[in-house]
From TrEMBL:
Keyword S-adenosyl-L-methionine: no
Name the UniProt record assigns to this protein: Spermidine synthase
Active site residues of this protein: 166
CDD domains from the UniProt entry: AdoMet_MTases
Domain of life: Bacteria
Family: Belongs to the spermidine/spermine synthase family.
The PABS domain, residue ranges: 8-257
Biological process per Gene Ontology, one example term: polyamine biosynthetic process
Signal peptide as annotated in the record: 1-22
Lineage: Bacteria, Pseudomonadati, Pseudomonadota, Gammaproteobacteria, Pseudomonadales
Native source organism of the sequence: Permianibacter aggregans
Length: 296
């Protein structure tokens, strides 16, 4: 009888601990989505509620014990772009989330101008309130649809050294930010010798179509891909090769260590093209994203 009581007590304690770990600290319904901020085991996360899938998707997470650590594997992979473009003077990030990438870049490159484009002002407010995202003369946020922002930048003849595509609506990348026309617009605001980096999924039914669209839009691609389902694409007009000089890699490893970036491990995630090269390219007229995603 005593063992039964102990078992029930243990089960109760585990349930209580689970509830405490999943503490919700903020909920907000914006014009674009439902935003949820919660904490588990000293990790604070921003989630978007996905109504048609019945759940939430992590958009950004922060380790409260190690606030500089990049929690997501894809964010660590994005940082590898610094080996390809070591001293960018200007960075454009499409999609803000909790702002972990612009904050890391600002620490590493204090003189670089970093502009994040975020369509939802509620996301920006949450990033400032719960993830220590801070704007200043070098870190800026523009509230706009990314494609509209880039079209306007084209007319203003603005350009960036590094453009990072990291916009998600909770389910996947918005359709109008996946087409060849959009990538051509991105290229028009990319400075000579510039770098484009994109966070994508290797498990999407759009994988082949998305891949051929990047291949048709850029001369050179370099891919980091892991078993976790994330794929980061580096794209440019110039050849892309990670440096192999040990002393150079050691210098960067020292700089990136606080962000939990393991260069040697990530270099092993390089992947060769493995998609159906005959898959139809996504265009503004042919972007069947919703159909393909829900066929998974």
């Amino acid at each position: 009888m005593k063992s039964i009581h102990l078992g029930c007590l243990l089960l109760t304690l585990l349930c209580v601990a689970s509830i405490v770990q999943a503490k919700v600290i903020h909920e907000e319904r914006s014009l674009y989505r439902n935003i949820l901020i919660d904490e588990k085991a000293n990790v604070r996360c921003m989630r978007f509620v996905v109504h048609n899938r019945g759940g939430t998707h992590n958009q950004s997470c922060k380790d409260l014990n190690e606030p500089r650590r990049l929690v997501f594997d894809y964010a660590q992979k994005v940082m590898m772009g610094l080996l390809l473009k070591p001293e960018p003077k200007s960075i454009l990030i499409v999609g803000l989330g909790g702002g972990s990438l612009p904050m890391a870049f600002h620490e590493l490159l204090p003189n670089a101008v970093i502009t994040s484009v975020e369509i939802d002002p509620a996301v920006t407010r949450a990033a400032k309130a719960y993830f220590d995202y801070q704007e200043n003369d070098f870190v800026r946020t523009e509230t706009a649809d990314a494609r509209v922002f880039i079209k306007r930048a084209m007319f203003r003849k603005q350009q960036w050294d590094w453009i990072i595509l990291d916009a998600f609506n909770g389910d996947y990348i918005p359709e109008h930010l996946m087409t060849m026309e959009f990538f051509q617009e991105v290229k028009s605001v990319l400075a000579p010798g510039g770098l484009v980096t994109a966070n994508t999924f290797s498990t999407s039914r759009l994988y082949d179509h998305e891949s051929t669209t990047y291949q048709a839009s850029f001369k050179n691609l370099l891919i980091l891909k892991s078993s976790k389902g994330n794929r980061v694409i580096f794209a440019a007009e110039q050849p892309l090769i990670f440096p192999i000089q040990e002393s150079y890699l050691a210098q960067w490893q020292q700089r990136l260590q606080p962000y939990d970036v393991n260069i040697k491990r990530l270099l092993n995630d390089q992947a060769v093209p493995d998609w159906d090269t005959q898959a139809r390219v996504l265009t503004d007229q042919y972007a069947p994203a919703n159909i393909l995603k829900h066929a998974q």
